[in-house]
């Protein structure tokens, strides 16, 4: 047994090194798909909100919900508390809806989708055919299936394995489809975790979200395969505002993966997403993200401004959620996947790797809101700063008076590569009962010279040595990822740090 | 940006009865503070820096009346320590009760005596360190103090002082409202220990500015007095030179509101700054330690050690930051904030921050909150220690790391015995 | 194999001379030992040869099979066949010992234009070599040197040496912190690697390691220079009489 485990891990680490060697370009997903698009007029108004709603054939209640959000948003001001600096965003100088022309008539299945679009995903390594996917290791359990919802700019192209999932009672489709096909579920749960009034970016999303994924796992069901959404921004000057809603009913389980890329462009692009997860009694959700949006060039020109609100509500007893994120892309990252631990004995976990190189700025972390008794949470955050980047961990652990006998453990480590970057830690700890125990530890240090020298004295070059040591630093988080994602993440860690040494 | 109206209103109310006095350098420094204050206003609870402590009673026009407190047969703090004692009653210096301020190698001057002088060393300290401490976070209560305080001492040490200087603050009025401003300057190689004790007033707003020149050593030990209803906002601004040492310890037992700010700048290479605090509170007790530690020099060491024991609804707050500026290589920064909640009503609210712009550093912070360790309690009991004693032992053990920051053993023992007395009086 | 000529080294950050004209020539297949009191520059010599930062070479050269080592990056020196067994092996949390070994082996193979080992081949070789050094599977799985005892760390160094098959091995105080049994085990590991194409430089304080790893030549180092060279009998002389006489003689 030992042997198998070692060999698999070996494979993973070797992959990292090979990927580093093979990649000469810095950002490998920076190409664009040349395709004719339908745009809504630039700018944001009630008319645009109505247009998006009508493009999606939405019922009146959905339109009313959006308009209420829009009317609130115009009175809100953009938050400034995060440690990120960026030029003022002109919200009227964006397209809020962009759809490939070939999608004008909704294809009945993926077979009918424009081959150019399918080729885009194939090039990204996301085959949309119903086969075992994410080229990589053969896991000991044999073939694994992953169902994919492919979101291209403002629309979902299609979702794989729908039939097989339907047999298990699982609903996996685009949110626009869910609004039409499953209005009772959407109406009941949308905005129940992230209310449309939550914050500037979430409210904006509530008004203009164009597509995203919807998942419903019925009671007692273990989702037969991993579900994933792959987000691709392609069009220029276009914001992507997707909304994901996952409902995991009593005793159910699902593992969900999310990937993101965008072309290289000189002009920054806006991405303001919302992810809501509702977890009922004894249910469990694992949500893993590898965020690799275009980070901008070495001088901070271009890149995605990523303002994301993600929250899971462990609404009933013994519900469990695990967020794992690898944040390597985006010029600006503003993201705090959070857990509301409402049910007694519910559990929340947050594992994060955030890498900021060159001129990237990341302000990311989590909130653990303990409301139920005997609730548990764990936070493991690994931040790596290189170049002139700024990387901030921001988190809240809150133990309410009634959340008796609860536990939190937080470990927050920062690594600095080079003397022009910054690493910051801003935790908020609020404990309002004495039977709960909260522990927070944080360290900041630079890449250990002795470790690098030791590796180099054994024959590795400096970049390999840094990749190895940094991957070691991130191990606790990488291990929390599903195998396929772990490989991709390890490779990304190495690629993201290219040019950071020497 | 327009100042929030509430801030201006608070300032108008708070400063209504205060007047700027003095001529020469001191008057100029005060008028400068008035101008700076007008641009800031006073804090409100909506300020991020006052997230966990409501400043309303500190910014109100008049202090909330505070019942006088009888310490019973407990000896005053530092009673057995041989020191030059300077006594303040309700925030006003009382020469009759005080020692002759004569100490070899140390100049001690009351603020009022320095006012008429054209050239005074304190000109480079008074309001200067406070002004530096206003960025990146504003501390308007300190500026208010600089503008209006007329009581306080200017102390300059040029050599190693043979004994400590001790400020004793007595309170005899239920409505006293004190503003105290001290400036301390330690010249190259000098060494001084400063003691502070007592409640001072129903409401006190204090500022101490401490300039520790290269190679000098400064020790500050403070015991804030047991009056239950007093309110205090204190600020210590310090600038620590190359190879210099700055150490400050505060014991807070009781007091319905305490906000102790420590703003430390390590400007020279190889400097050392330790700030520590032990706070024990029972019932209406809100205690806030706010620390801002800036590393500018290389190879400096800083420690922040704060422990709080809380019961019956007492609230403990810790906001601590280590800022390491670009170029402050080889920084060794450490910060620990811990609370022991002896019952379910108490609260601990913390924001321990690191902000780091240099890579060759070793910085860490830890923060914990929880109840007394039942296993340890049982272990002690099973070895024959009565429960109450076992609890006291464990509480003292919990506080030990903070008290350990006091170098002088006699002073540390005084603090320890005060804590033991407090624990005996506050059974849990 | 290794030719060191007139090597002068000072600390990078202060004006402190550590090596003051070291001359040393080691032939293929030979085992040399360097002994000397604390602070004589023994460990510095090993670090300078391996390419650690913090030192400035002010004069002299060190050729490995005719190639100047001192101008190479540490990894290039390793690829050229130099191996330093560290006095204090470095702990690398999070990086598996196997991963580390495999990355190193393949990096060197690649640098030499050889084919990389497959996972299967590699595993087989490691297992075999680990067994003779009494390194169990658990030690291979744990992170590099983390939580290893002193003996385990040194055995791990020898395992790396066995896997990397260097030409020139430097053992820096490999006996420090080891009890007799652990030292024997390490020495056996080293002896198993001795052959006509591989040379050793054993740096040690004491004669006892040299009972187990028999040197062909012994050098005494003091104040940054080799003050006396001889055969194995020189080590015995030190063992019996200490360094004082030798130092006085050199004055």
Automatic annotation (TrEMBL), chain A:
Provide the SUF system FeS cluster assembly SufBD N-terminal domain boundaries: 166-222
Q: Looking at the record's lineage, which domain of life comes first?
A: Bacteria
Recorded hits in InterPro entries, A to Z, give:
Fe-S_cluster_assembly_SufBD, SUF_FeS_clus_asmbl_SufB, SUF_FeS_clus_asmbl_SufBD_core, SUF_FeS_clus_asmbl_SufBD_sf, SufBD_N
Ranges for domain SUF system FeS cluster assembly SufBD core come to 231-473
Q: Which family does it belong to?
A: Belongs to the iron-sulfur cluster assembly SufBD family.
- PANTHER family cross-referenced by the UniProt entry: FES CLUSTER ASSEMBLY PROTEIN SUF, UPF0051 PROTEIN ABCI8, CHLOROPLASTIC-RELATED
Q: Which Pfam families match?
A: SUFBD_core (PF01458), SufBD_N (PF19295)
Protein name from the UniProt record: Fe-S cluster assembly protein SufB
From TrEMBL, chain B:
Extract the Pfam families matched here: SUFBD_core (PF01458)
Q: Where is the SUF system FeS cluster assembly SufBD core domain?
A: 178-398
Give coiled-coil spans as residue ranges.
Answer: none
Q: What is this protein called?
A: SufD family Fe-S cluster assembly protein
Q: What is the lineage of its organism?
A: Bacteria, Pseudomonadati, Pseudomonadota, Alphaproteobacteria, Rhodobacterales
UniProtKB/TrEMBL annotation, chain C:
Q: Which UniProt keywords apply?
A: ATP-binding, Nucleotide-binding
**CDD domains given for it?**
ABC_FeS_Assembly
Annotated ranges, domain ABC transporter? 2-248
Quote the InterPro entries the UniProt record gives. AAA+_ATPase, ABC_transporter-like_ATP-bd, ABC_transporter-like_CS, FeS-cluster_ATPase_SufC, P-loop_NTPase
A Pfam family it matches = ABC_tran
Similarity remark: Belongs to the ABC transporter superfamily. Ycf16 family.
Q: What is this protein called?
A: Fe-S cluster assembly ATPase SufC
Q: Which gene encodes it?
A: sufC
């Amino acid at each position: 047994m030992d042997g198998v485990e070692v060999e698999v891990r070996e494979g993973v680490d070797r992959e990292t090194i090979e990927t580093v060697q093979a990649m000469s370009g810095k950002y490998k997903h920076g190409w664009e798909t040349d395709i004719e698009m339908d745009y809504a007029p630039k700018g944001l108004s009630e008319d645009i909100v109505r247009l998006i709603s009508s493009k999606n054939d939405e019922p009146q209640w959905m339109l009313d919900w959006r308009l209420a959000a829009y009317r609130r948003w115009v009175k809100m001001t953009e938050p400034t508390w995060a440690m990120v600096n960026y030029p003022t965003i002109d919200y009227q100088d964006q397209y809020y809806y962009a759809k490939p022309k070939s999608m004008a008539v909704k294809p009945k299945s993926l077979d009918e989708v424009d081959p150019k679009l399918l080729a885009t995903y194939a090039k990204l390594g996301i085959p949309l055919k119903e086969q075992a996917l994410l080229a990589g290791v053969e896991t000991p359990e044999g073939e694994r299936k992953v169902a994919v919802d492919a979101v291209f700019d403002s629309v979902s192209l299609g979702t794989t394995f729908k039939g097989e999932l339907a047999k298990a009672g699982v609903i996996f489709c685009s949110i626009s489809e869910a609004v039409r096909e499953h209005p009772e579920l959407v109406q009941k749960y949308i905005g129940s975790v992230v209310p449309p009034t939550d914050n500037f970016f979430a409210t904006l999303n509530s008004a203009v979200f164009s597509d995203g994924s919807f998942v419903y796992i019925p009671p007692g069901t273990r989702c037969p395969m991993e579900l994933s959404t792959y987000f691709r921004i392609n069009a220029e000057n276009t914001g992507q505002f997707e909304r994901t809603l996952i409902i995991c009913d009593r005793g159910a389980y699902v593992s969900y993966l999310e990937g993101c890329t965008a072309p290289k462009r000189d002009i920054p692009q806006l991405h303001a997403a919302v992810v809501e997860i509702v977890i009922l009694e004894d249910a469990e959700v694992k949500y893993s993200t590898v965020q690799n949006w275009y980070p901008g060039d070495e001088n901070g020109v271009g890149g995605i401004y990523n303002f994301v609100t993600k929250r899971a509500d462990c609404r009933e007893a013994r519900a469990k959620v695990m967020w794992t994120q690898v944040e390597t892309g985006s010029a600006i990252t503003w993201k705090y996947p959070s857990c509301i631990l409402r049910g007694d004995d519910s559990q929340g976990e947050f594992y994060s790797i955030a890498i900021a190189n060159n001129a990237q700025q990341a302000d990311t972390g989590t909130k653990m809101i303990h409301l139920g008794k005997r609730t548990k949470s764990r936070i493991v955050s690994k931040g790596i700063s290189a170049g002139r980047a700024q990387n901030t961990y921001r988190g809240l652990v809150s133990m309410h008076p009634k959340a008796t006998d609860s536990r939190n453990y937080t470990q927050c480590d920062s690594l600095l590569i080079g003397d022009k970057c910054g690493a910051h830690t801003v935790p908020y700890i609020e404990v309002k009962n004495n039977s709960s125990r909260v522990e927070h530890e944080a360290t900041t240090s630079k890449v250990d010279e002795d470790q690098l020298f030791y590796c180099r004295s054994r024959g590795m070059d400096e970049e390999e040595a840094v990749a190895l040591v940094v991957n070691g630093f991130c191990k606790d988080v990488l291990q929390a990822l599903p195998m396929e994602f772990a490989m991709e993440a390890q490779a990304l860690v190495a690629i993201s740090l290219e040019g950071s040494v020497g | 940006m327009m100042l929030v109206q509430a801030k201006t209103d608070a300032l108008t109310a708070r400063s209504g009865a205060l007047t700027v006095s003095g001529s020469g350098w001191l008057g100029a420094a005060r008028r400068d503070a008035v101008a700076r204050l007008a641009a800031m206003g006073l804090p409100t609870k909506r300020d991020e820096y006052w997230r966990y402590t409501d400043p309303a009673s500190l910014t109100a026009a008049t202090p909330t009346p505070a019942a006088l407190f009888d310490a019973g047969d407990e000896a005053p703090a530092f009673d057995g320590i041989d020191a030059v004692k300077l006594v303040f009653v309700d925030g006003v210096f009382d020469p009759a009760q005080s020692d002759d301020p004569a100490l070899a190698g140390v100049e001690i001057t009351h603020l009022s005596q320095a006012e008429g002088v054209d050239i005074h060393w304190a000109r480079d300290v008074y309001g200067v360190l406070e002004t530096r401490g206003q960025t990146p976070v504003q501390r308007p209560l300190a500026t208010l103090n600089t503008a209006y305080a007329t009581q306080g001492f200017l102390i300059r040490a040029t050599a190693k002082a043979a004994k400590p200087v001790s400020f004793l603050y007595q309170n005899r009025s239920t409505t006293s409202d004190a503003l105290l401003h001290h400036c301390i300057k330690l010249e190259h190689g000098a060494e001084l220990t400063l003691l502070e004790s007592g409640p001072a007033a129903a409401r006190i707003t204090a500022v101490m500015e401490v300039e520790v020149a290269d190679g000098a050593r400064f020790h500050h030990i403070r015991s804030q007095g047991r009056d239950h209803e007093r309110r205090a906002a204190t600020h210590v601004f310090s600038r620590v030179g190359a190879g210099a040492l700055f150490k400050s310890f505060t014991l807070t037992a009781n007091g319905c509101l305490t906000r102790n700010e420590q703003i430390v700048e390590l400007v020279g290479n190889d400097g050392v700054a330790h700030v520590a605090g032990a706070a024990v509170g029972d019932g209406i007790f809100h205690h806030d330690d706010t620390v801002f530690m800036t590393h500018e020099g290389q190879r400096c060491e800083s420690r922040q050690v704060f422990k709080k024991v809380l019961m019956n609804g007492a609230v403990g707050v810790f906001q601590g930051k280590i800022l390491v500026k670009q170029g402050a290589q080889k920084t060794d920064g450490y910060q620990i904030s811990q609370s022991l909640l002896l019952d379910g009503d108490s609260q601990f609210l913390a924001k321990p921050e690191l902000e780091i712009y240099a890579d060759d550093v070793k910085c860490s912070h830890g923060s914990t909150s929880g109840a007394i360790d039942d296993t340890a309690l049982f272990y002690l009991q099973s070895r024959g220690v009565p429960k109450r004693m076992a609890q006291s032992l464990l509480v003292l053990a919990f506080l030990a790391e903070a008290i350990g920051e006091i170098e002088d053993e006699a002073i540390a023992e005084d603090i320890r015995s005060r804590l033991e007395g407090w624990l005996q009086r506050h059974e849990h | 194999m290794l030719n060191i000529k007139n090597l002068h080294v000072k600390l990078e950050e202060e004006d402190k001379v550590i090596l003051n004209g070291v001359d040393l020539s080691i032939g293929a297949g030979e085992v040399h030992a360097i002994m000397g009191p604390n602070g004589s520059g023994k460990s510095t010599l090993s670090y300078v040869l391996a390419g650690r930062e913090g030192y400035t070479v002010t004069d002299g050269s060190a050729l490995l099979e005719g190639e100047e080592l001192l101008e190479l990056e540490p990894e290039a020196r390793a690829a050229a066949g130099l191996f330093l067994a560290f006095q204090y092996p470095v702990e690398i949390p999070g990086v598996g010992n196997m991963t580390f070994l495999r990355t190193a082996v393949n990096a060197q193979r690649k640098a030499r234009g050889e084919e990389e080992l497959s996972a299967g081949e590699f595993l087989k070789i490691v297992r075999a070599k680990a067994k003779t050094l009494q390194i169990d599977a658990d030690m291979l799985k744990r992170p590099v040197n983390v939580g290893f005892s002193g003996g385990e760390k040194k055995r791990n160094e020898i395992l790396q040496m066995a896997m990397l098959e260097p030409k020139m091995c430097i053992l820096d105080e490999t006996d420090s912190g080891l009890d007799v049994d652990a030292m024997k085990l390490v020495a056996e590991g080293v002896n198993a690697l001795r052959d006509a194409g591989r040379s050793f430089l054993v740096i040690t304080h004491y004669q006892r390691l040299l009972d187990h790893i028999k040197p062909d030549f012994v050098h005494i180092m003091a104040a940054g220079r080799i003050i006396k060279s001889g055969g194995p009998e020189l080590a015995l002389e030190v063992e019996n009489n200490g360094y004082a006489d030798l130092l006085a003689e050199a004055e």
